[in-house]
Amino acid sequence: MATKKVGILGATGTVGQRFILLLADHPVFTIHALGASSRSAGKAYKDAVRWKQARPIPENVKDITVKSCDAELFKDCDVVFSGLDADVAGDIEMAMLKQDIAVFSNAKNYRRDPVVPLIVPTVNPDHFDLIPHQRSLHNLKKGFLVTNANCSTTGLVVPLKALQDAFGPISHIIVNTQQAISGAGYPGVPSLDILDNVVPHIGGEEEKMEWEVGKILGGVADDKKSFSLLENTVVSATCTRVPVLDGHLETVSVKFANGSPSLEQVNQVLEKYSSEAEKLQCHSAPEKPIVVTYDADRPQPRLDRENLKGQAVTVGRVRKCPVLDIKFVLLIHNTLLGAAGSSVLNAEIAVAKGLI
Amino acid sequence: MATKKVGILGATGTVGQRFILLLADHPVFTIHALGASSRSAGKAYKDAVRWKQARPIPENVKDITVKSCDAELFKDCDVVFSGLDADVAGDIEMAMLKQDIAVFSNAKNYRRDPVVPLIVPTVNPDHFDLIPHQRSLHNLKKGFLVTNANCSTTGLVVPLKALQDAFGPISHIIVNTQQAISGAGYPGVPSLDILDNVVPHIGGEEEKMEWEVGKILGGVADDKKSFSLLENTVVSATCTRVPVLDGHLETVSVKFANGSPSLEQVNQVLEKYSSEAEKLQCHSAPEKPIVVTYDADRPQPRLDRENLKGQAVTVGRVRKCPVLDIKFVLLIHNTLLGAAGSSVLNAEIAVAKGLI
Amino acid sequence: MATKKVGILGATGTVGQRFILLLADHPVFTIHALGASSRSAGKAYKDAVRWKQARPIPENVKDITVKSCDAELFKDCDVVFSGLDADVAGDIEMAMLKQDIAVFSNAKNYRRDPVVPLIVPTVNPDHFDLIPHQRSLHNLKKGFLVTNANCSTTGLVVPLKALQDAFGPISHIIVNTQQAISGAGYPGVPSLDILDNVVPHIGGEEEKMEWEVGKILGGVADDKKSFSLLENTVVSATCTRVPVLDGHLETVSVKFANGSPSLEQVNQVLEKYSSEAEKLQCHSAPEKPIVVTYDADRPQPRLDRENLKGQAVTVGRVRKCPVLDIKFVLLIHNTLLGAAGSSVLNAEIAVAKGLI
Amino acid sequence: MATKKVGILGATGTVGQRFILLLADHPVFTIHALGASSRSAGKAYKDAVRWKQARPIPENVKDITVKSCDAELFKDCDVVFSGLDADVAGDIEMAMLKQDIAVFSNAKNYRRDPVVPLIVPTVNPDHFDLIPHQRSLHNLKKGFLVTNANCSTTGLVVPLKALQDAFGPISHIIVNTQQAISGAGYPGVPSLDILDNVVPHIGGEEEKMEWEVGKILGGVADDKKSFSLLENTVVSATCTRVPVLDGHLETVSVKFANGSPSLEQVNQVLEKYSSEAEKLQCHSAPEKPIVVTYDADRPQPRLDRENLKGQAVTVGRVRKCPVLDIKFVLLIHNTLLGAAGSSVLNAEIAVAKGLI
Question: A151-332: which CATH architecture?
Answer without folding.
Answer: 2-Layer Sandwich (3.30)
